[in-house]
Design a protein that fits this description.
Elements (H helix, E strand, L loop, with lengths): L1 H34 L1 E7 L4 H13 L6 E5 L2 H8 L6 E2 L13 H21 L2 E5 L3 E3 L4 H8 L5 E5 L12 E8 L3 H16 L13 H11 L4 E3 L8 H5 L12 E3 L6 H10 L6
Parallel strand pairs: 1-2, 1-4, 2-3, 6-8
Antiparallel strand pairs: 4-7, 5-9, 6-7
Helix pairs in contact: 4-6, 6-7
Length: 278
């Protein structure tokens, strides 16, 4: 009788150990899958140096293996091809650079909506979209995992110029995470249609929001769940460069060099604050 009880006890212990091992490998696989994502960037030739600087910052964080670059002209394609990155080519007749708020800017940014949607569908995983005027100073993988485990469909950089966490009126289309789901695909398709419907209506694009305005409208119409990133970890140009003293003891995960006009001025500001890596 005693031997039988010992045998049963040993079998139960063995079963318990097997369950622990199975749980470990299952969770590890889930963790690794959640950590698998793509970082998406697109550019015209006028932004090639800015894009190279962003790519170098990704290499510094060992995130460049997740990078997918789409070029919109030969100048951009030829430049990016020399950086150890194999870009995808999208042939257009766009200007190599466009001033924010202009029709040229509108025409360039409508491509973004297609590029993001196609990337989500192709890669079947979370897509992190980044503008070229961003540098990565830390690994963002843990935040991708948090996003994946959250109820949000989309995460935006908060484009407020202050540090009020409750102020979520301005969601920046320059840095966004998308889940691979039907709602995100629908949001991107509807946003593109909004831009097409207002192609020649410059009054609709008052303020130059272009894709950002279309995205915000589409998100509301599709009742998409949206979150915003931490203000200190994901600062825009206003929060970071106007409050540089706050970041002397805190290294953010990215810095977005917006709230300044002109690529030349952006490059000079990056250099001034030690964020030019090429």
């Amino acid at each position: 009788m005693m031997n039988k009880l010992i045998t049963i006890l040993l079998l139960l212990i063995l079963l318990f150990v097997i369950l622990i091992i199975h749980s470990y490998y299952t969770n590890r696989e889930k963790y690794n899958n959640n950590k698998d994502f793509k970082i998406l960037m697109f550019l015209t030739g006028g932004l090639k140096e800015e894009a190279e600087n962003c790519i170098k910052s990704l290499k510094n964080q060992k995130l460049d293996d997740k990078l997918v670059v789409t070029t919109l002209d030969d100048e951009a394609y030829n430049h990016i091809s020399k950086l150890g990155v194999k870009p995808e080519k999208r042939k257009t007749n766009l200007k190599n650079e466009a001033k924010f708020g202009t029709k040229d800017f509108y025409e360039i940014t409508i491509n973004k909506l297609d590029i993001i949607r196609e990337s989500i569908e192709k890669h079947n995983k979370i897509v992190v979209y980044t503008d070229t005027d961003i540098v990565f100073l830390k690994d963002i993988s843990d935040d991708v995992i948090k996003f994946n485990n959250s109820n949000h469909d989309i995460m935006f950089q908060n484009d407020t110029n202050g540090f009020n966490e409750s102020d979520k009126r301005n969601m920046c289309a320059g840095f966004i995470m998308f889940k691979n789901n039907k709602k995100c695909i629908k949001v991107l398709k509807d946003a593109k249609q909004l831009m097409l419907d207002n192609w020649d209506n410059r009054k609709w694009d008052t303020g130059g929001g272009a894709d950002q305005k279309a995205m915000n409208i589409s998100i509301k119409e599709n009742k998409c769940s949206v979150g915003t990133f931490d203000l200190m970890d994901y600062p825009n140009g206003a929060r970071y460069f106007r409050n540089i003293h706050k970041f002397k003891t805190h290294t953010p995960k990215i810095v977005h060099n917006n709230f300044i006009i002109g690529t030349k001025n952006k490059i000079e500001r990056f250099k001034k604050y030690g964020l030019w890596f090429i």
